[in-house]
Amino acid sequence: xxxxxxxxxxxxxxxxxxxxxxxxxxxxxxxxxxxxxxxxxxxxxxxxxxxxxxxxxxxxxxxxxxxxxxxxxxxxxxxxxxxxxxxxxxxxxxxxxxxxxxxxxxxxxxxxxxxxxxxxxxxxxxxxxxxxxxxxxxxxxxxxxxxxxxxxxxxxxxxxxxxxxxxxxxxxxxxxxxxxxxxxxxxxxxxxxxxxxxxxxxxxxxxxxxxxxxxxxxxxxxxxxxxxxxxxxxxxxxxxxxxxxxxxxxxxxxxxxxxxxxxxxxxxxxxxxxxxxxxxxxxxxxxxxxxxxxxxxxxxxxxxxxxxxxxxxxxxxxxxxxxxxxxxxxxxxxxxxxxxx
Length: 341
Ligand code: PEP
Ligand code: MN
What we know:
By secondary structure, this protein is an alpha/beta fold. The chain has helices at 11-23, 51-54, 107-120, 144-157, 171-177, 191-198, 214-226, 254-261, 270-274, 280-289, 316-332, and strands at residues 2-5, 27-31, 38-42, 59-63, 83-85, 88-90, 94-100, 124-126, 160-164, 180-183, 204-207, 232-236, 266-268, 294-298, 336-337. 33% of the residues lie in helices and 18% in strands. The chain has an eight-stranded parallel barrel, surrounded by seven helices. A four-stranded antiparallel beta sheet has the order 2-3-1-4. Helix 3 (107-120) runs parallel beside helix 11 (316-332). The protein starts with a strand and ends with a strand. The mean pLDDT is 96. Bound molecules: phosphoenolpyruvate and manganese (II) ion.
C-alpha cells in the first residue's frame, strides 16, 4: 500500500499517518519524490485496508501496490531515482562510466589505470580487492592492501571507487573505502549481506545473479531498500544460457524491463556479460542504446597478464575508442556522458 499525501499536507499530517502504520505493527517508509510526498507500507502480512488511511487529514489517496517488490517499484515512485555518489549524481539524463581492472594487483596497475580511464572519460574506478573466485586456487585479491591502493588511486585522480563486498565480516573495512559497494552476482541472494548493506549509508551496485530472474533481482534490491538504504543501482551482467561461445548472455531485455518496473538506475556490465574482449565495445554501445544509465567495464594496462578476467578486459586504447562511440550514441539519444572537471 502506498499512502500519497496532498501537496499541502503538514509534517504533523505525515507523522499521524506514520503512527497509524506503526500502531498496526507495520513499517512506514518515506518515499522521497519531487512531485509528492508518499509513504510506503511494508511488514503487513495480509492486505491493507485503504479506507482508514484515506480519511486521515492530509492524505490524497491510498493505492494498493500490485508488485511483490514495493519500495523499488515504479508504482510507488513514477519518476527516475537519482542517486548521489560523492559529488556526482547517478541516474536521470546523465550516463556514468565505471572502468578499471577486475582485480587490484599493484599500485602501478591501479593508479595507472585510474589516470588513463579518467582521461578517456570514466567518472569512477572499479577494482576488486576481495574477489569471489570459482576456484579456491585462483587469485583471491589483495584484500585490505587492495583497498588502500584504491584509496590512493582515488586521491591521485578524483575518481570515485567501486569495489565488491564479499561478506558481512569484511563489510566495515570495504565500506570505509568504497564510494559504491558492489554486490557480486554470486551474492545477489545472500540475504544477510543484502540486509547488512541496507544498514550502511553507502550506495550499492547490485549485480544480477547468474541465473536470477528480473523479478528476483528486484526482490534483492527490495531487501536493501527495506532496511533504509535507498541508494541502489541495478546491474545487468549477463545470465547463464545454453550458449558456450560467450561467457554469459548479456540480457539487454532486462534494461527496458527494469526501467519500466523500477525507478532505480540501471547499469550494464558488458565485460562479464559477453566475456570476449573484442566484443565488449559493441555491447557497451548496445547498453547505452537500450537506455542504461551507465556501464561498468573492465580495463587493464596489459590484459593478457591480468591476474583475473584478462580475456574480457580492454586495454587503454580500446577503452578510449569505445568511449568516443558511447558518447556518440548517448548524444544521439539526447543524453550526456558525465566527465570529471
Ligand atoms: C567482477 O565485477 O569482477 C565480478 C566478479 O562480477 P560478477 O559478480 O558480475 O561476476
Ligand atoms: Mn571480473
